Amino acid sequence: MRDFFEGIAWLFEEILLIPLDALRELELNSWWAANAINFIFILIGLAAFFYWMKQLKKFNDNDEENRDPSAHSFLG
């Protein structure tokens, strides 16, 4: 059983975490390059947020939502 768990540890340490080791080494040379993927995810999140807000405004302007307090069972 111990060999099984050591095999899992070897798989993660020697193979699956190679990209993270490369990022750790890159961070010593360039902080901006090492964090580029984080900036990309932030931009994707911001784009999704603004799209969502635009869609909410569109439905709000069309007055499609039933805003009566008794419209939802959990409010009444």
Describe the protein in words.
75% of the residues lie in helices and 0% in strands. It is mainly alpha-helical and 76 residues long. The chain has two domains: 1-32, no CATH class; 35-65. The mean pLDDT is 90.
**Helix content percent band:** over 70%
Quaternary structure classification: single chain
The succession of helices and strands, N to C, reads HHHH
State the domain count.
2
Q: How much β-strand is present in the residues? A: under 5%
The main pleated sheet reads as: none
End-to-end Cα distance, whole Å, is 57 Å
Net shape: elongated
Residue windows where pLDDT falls under 50 for at least 5 positions: none
User: What average pLDDT do the residues reach?
Assistant: 90
Per DSSP E runs of 2 or more residues, the count of β-strands stands at 0
The Cα radius of gyration reads: 24 Å
Organism: Salegentibacter flavus
Protein name: Uracil phosphoribosyltransferase
InterPro entries: DUF6341 (IPR045922)
Pfam families: DUF6341
Which tags fit this structure?
76 residues; mainly alpha; 2 domains; 4 helices; elongated; transmembrane
Q: What is the topological layout?
A:
Layout: H1 2-16, H2 18-29, H3 31-34, H4 36-61
Please give a quick description of this structure.
By secondary structure, this protein is mainly alpha-helical. It has helices at 2-16, 18-29, 31-34, 36-61.
